[in-house]
């Protein structure tokens, strides 16, 4: 029952967000174009509800000469490829704003497990254990306010499972405001790596951007 209410909330809030944030979108689009050559947006293949594929949108944060289809954490020196505007977008998480459109069309929700990359097989498998692949992926979620990039896969999947188990309006409100605090403090962001807890176990840093020329 709550999933239907959740979808209605997503439609209303994402529509309001698109209208209110349109001036900010315009400013960011202009800044990205002035800062570096290339498209403003990029699409990334992600896992949606019931493990269906969809293209998640982000603002481009890397140069167009970045090695094609190479996750950020696999680059020898990722900083050299991130644009000046890209550093700002990543630090503030503003690169995620285009996902409001993904929410509006029903591919994502405002709150939910962050959509896994199509090739994050270990994370997808772990989430199956907790039923976390059977709810809409979110712009932010319980795991994001409890570690973000630093979390090892088993912990991230468990937190996603806790969200599914406790999913409610109260839980979503808690995640939303918790996200505002985390973004303000830049908690859990591990640029060019997977954080201190488990470096080799996850490809989540690829979510930062895989550039297609």
Walk me through what this model shows.
- This protein is mainly alpha-helical.
- It has one domain.
- It is built from seven helices and four strands.
- Strands 1-2 form a two-stranded antiparallel sheet. Strands 3-4 form a two-stranded parallel ribbon.
- A hairpin with a 5-residue loop joins strand 1 and strand 2.
Give keywords:
mainly alpha, 213 residues
Q: Largest sheet, if any? A: 2 strands, antiparallel
Radius of gyration: 16 Å
User: DSSP strand (E) fraction?
Assistant: 5-15%
* Tally of strands: 4
Total tally of structural domains: 1
**Overall helicity:** 40-55%
Give the CA-CA distance, first to last residue. Answer: 43 Å
**Helix tally?**
7
- Structure classification: mainly alpha
Quick recap:
The chain has 213 residues and is mainly alpha-helical.
Topology of this protein?
Blueprint: H1 2-20, H2 22-35, E1 41-47, E2 53-59, H3 84-92, H4 99-104, E3 109-111, H5 121-130, E4 138-140, H6 153-166, H7 169-185
Helix pairs in contact: 5-6
């Amino acid at each position: 029952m709550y999933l239907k209410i959740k979808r209605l909330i997503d439609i209303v809030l994402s529509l309001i967000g698109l209208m209110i944030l349109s001036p900010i979108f315009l400013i960011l689009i202009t800044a990205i174009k002035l800062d570096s050559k290339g498209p403003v947006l990029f699409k990334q293949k992600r896992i949606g509800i019931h493990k269906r594929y969809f293209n998640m949108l982000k603002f481009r944060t890397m140069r167009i000469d970045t090695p094609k289809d190479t996750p950020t954490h696999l680059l020898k020196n990722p900083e050299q490829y991130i644009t000046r505007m890209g550093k700002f977008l990543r630090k503030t998480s503003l690169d995620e704003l285009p996902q409001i459109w993904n929410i509006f069309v029903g591919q994502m929700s405002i709150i939910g497990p962050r959509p896994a990359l199509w090739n994050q097989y270990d994370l997808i498998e772990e989430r199956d254990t907790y039923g976390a692949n059977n709810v809409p992926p979110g712009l932010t979620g319980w795991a994001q306010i409890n570690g973000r990039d630093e979390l090892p896969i088993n912990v991230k999947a468990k937190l996603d499972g806790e969200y599914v188990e406790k999913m409610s309006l109260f839980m979503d409100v808690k995640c939303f405001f918790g996200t505002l605090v985390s973004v303000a403090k830049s908690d859990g962001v591990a640029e060019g790596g997977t954080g201190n807890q488990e470096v080799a176990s996850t490809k989540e840093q690829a979510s930062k951007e895989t550039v297609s020329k």
